[in-house]
DNA sequence: GGTCAATACGAACGCTGTTCTTAGTGAAAC
DNA sequence: GTTTCACTAAGAACAGCGTTCGTATTGACC
């Protein structure tokens, strides 16, 4: 008996390795069309997100891209939620983790977080799925383990490191989501407008008005590394 | 001419004060039903979110709670997005900001962030709207100004303080959203299960397995103040 | 009293995720 | 070689969503 999507999902939650079913196909092969597989679904899903954003990723959209009906997907995927989780999994799987170097733990953490951000931004809005996704996913846990190892090698106490990993992960995800929502370069384009709006505020906003330049300065990447450094600075000052 | 919802929205984005139209009513008053106003809509919306979560907040749900059709709302509100923004606005308006005290800037920041978290968690999932909402909302900017003032009084450099306000706001929102999604006390209930899942991981997760206790320890509030302190520690070490 | 602008609201459109049902296929069993 | 069977593919449909259109109803103003 080959596994139902539900079984695959619970298996995924526990081990991460999947029986795979390799080329074994049963069912109609209408014409020369490629058979639908989970990997094929994920490929087209990533393609859609990269092109049109995560909001445009619907079951129907994926189905029509595969030249089929929506119901055909439910033989391979439990849910939209399940699809999202699979996407995040594969996205995290492409993050390569360095061998922990006690002397360079700071740079290593920043590098991993930066790579994570990069991946999230390549697929605009997908970080929303990362926020909702259960943290028990194996691939998600893998990058967690990687960051954890780096912090431990850096001499951070286990309890502190454990919570820091969560905090860093959460911040990276939230930052990426915010950047995706605002629209990336749309931020830079609307900076002048934002500035004038801040300076045009009532008198009850003295600091916001005076430091409008500081408030609107910097690229999203600048702000990202700033906050990362903020947290890392807080880590080694016991 | 009384303003259309669009006009109210743009007015709101710029000033925040609204002409109000006070009891002036034109239109059918079927029976003794209360006339629909923006405030009434917001009241019932908050009620729904508090009871059933942000996911359950739909236009139709609000309309039926008001014993009317969905289209009746669009005379007072531009969008669902606009409704969300209004909710966040009113939520932020209930945050009272302390007079900046240079000696207690740390405690003051933590207090404001804690109050913000409290408000977000009272209405589960509403922080999602805060993430999407444009940061040009007057009420949102008000608490930004408040936190900014506290940091400046604490001697933080303007540029650093400006970016820190954004980082803190983003973290508070993301944390609240995560807590809402996981389900609050559901976290505590599933801790044992999570622990056993972590310890049951493959050998490629040595640190996660060894420190599973540390990883799953602490309440959400503990982790919240931990991360806040992390960022604040990073602030005053130039 | 008549005019007009603003509100209220039923009906409908296009979209979503999901399920039910039916048709079709290859591998295995006899 | 035929039959059985587990599985996939896919059409049709359902409930629910945000939103718009058209229309009826009302109060204030001339």
Automatic annotation (TrEMBL), chains A, B:
Pfam families on file: TetR_C_1, TetR_N
PROSITE patterns, per database record: HTH_TETR_2
HTH tetR-type domain segment(s): 35-95
Domain of life: Bacteria
Gene3D superfamilies in the record: Tetracycline Repressor, domain 2 (1.10.357.10)
Protein name: DNA-binding transcriptional regulator, AcrR family
DNA-binding positions: 58-77
Organism: Paractinoplanes atraurantiacus
Keywords of this entry: DNA-binding, Transcription, Transcription regulation
Annotated spans, Disordered: 1-30
GO terms of molecular function: DNA-binding transcription factor activity; transcription cis-regulatory region binding
Lineage start: Bacteria, Bacillati, Actinomycetota, Actinomycetes, Micromonosporales
Keyword Ribonucleoprotein belongs to the record: no
GO biological process, one term: negative regulation of DNA-templated transcription
